[in-house]
Design goal:
Layout (H helix, E strand, L loop, with lengths): L1 H16 L2 H7 L15 H8 L1 H19 L1 H16 L7 H7 L2 H18 L12 H11 L1 H18 L2 H18 L4 H17 L1 H9 L20
Length: 233
């Protein structure tokens, strides 16, 4: 049973390590590690390179998490197939199969955790990386979409009220385990949500310090250039 978990961890790490923020910014002639907050996440790419590149990076980073957590569905197939083979084709319920092979949910969790580590400490960028919000979002979209929806509501409410991306991200992350608990998700997923909430919060510790000091930057739209007044002759 250890082999599929090791595979999920390895694939998850290398998926997470793909430095899409760096690559998208580099395609525009910008080293994202030298501009803005020097973070390769979607927020900094959007701030430095514009809305389109920033949204693209968010989508790609979220896709990394979704694919890493997608091992959940891959191992579900193998769990059911193996259970069917061992029972000689007898009828069985999905719950019986899940009880027979707990590798099913565990592989998805391992894959997502590995992807977050890869995203934050990428071997392709000298172990520098982003803060994991987009990657976690993609993973939780696969693992527990309803708690993710609650976190999204908190993110949107906080962001459009305060314009602080960091505050919105931290509060949304902290919402996930609470929502998972009240929505009666599997204990393993609730524990995962707790770990990732702590991970995201720690990765934002510098932002939290600036928020407390009143020096954190708000996300504001770039205003259009004001045309010069016509010359008077």
């Amino acid at each position: 049973m250890l082999t599929p978990l090791l595979i999920a961890a390895a694939v998850g790490y290398f998926l997470g390590a793909l430095p899409f923020g760096y690559l998208v910014a580099r395609s525009r002639g910008i080293n994202i590690f030298e501009h803005g907050s020097k973070n390769p996440g979607a927020t900094n790419v959007r701030r430095v390179c514009g809305k389109g590149p920033g949204n693209l990076v968010f989508a790609l980073d979220a896709l990394k998490g979704a694919l890493a957590a997608g091992w959940l569905w891959v191992w579900r197939y193998f769990a059911l197939a193996e259970f069917h083979a061992r029972t000689g084709g007898e009828s069985y319920s999905a719950n019986d199969a899940f009880g027979f092979l707990m590798i099913f949910p565990v592989a998805g969790v391992v894959g997502l955790v590995a992807a977050l580590i890869g995203h934050s400490f990428s071997c392709f960028t000298r172990f520098k990386g982003g803060k994991g919000v987009a990657t976690a979002t993609g993973g939780f979209l696969v693992l527990m979409p309803l708690p993710l929806l609650a976190g999204l509501v908190v993110w949107l409410t906080t962001f459009y009220t305060t314009r602080y991306v960091s505050l919105a991200s931290v509060l949304a992350a902290l919402t996930l385990p609470v929502a998972a608990y009240f929505l009666r998700e599997q204990p393993l997923l609730i524990q995962l949500a707790l770990v990732i909430a702590a991970f995201v919060t720690v990765r934002h510790r510098a932002n939290i310090t600036r928020l407390l000091n009143g020096t954190e930057s708000k996300f504001v739209k770039k205003s259009a250039a004001v045309p010069a007044p016509p010359s008077q002759s």
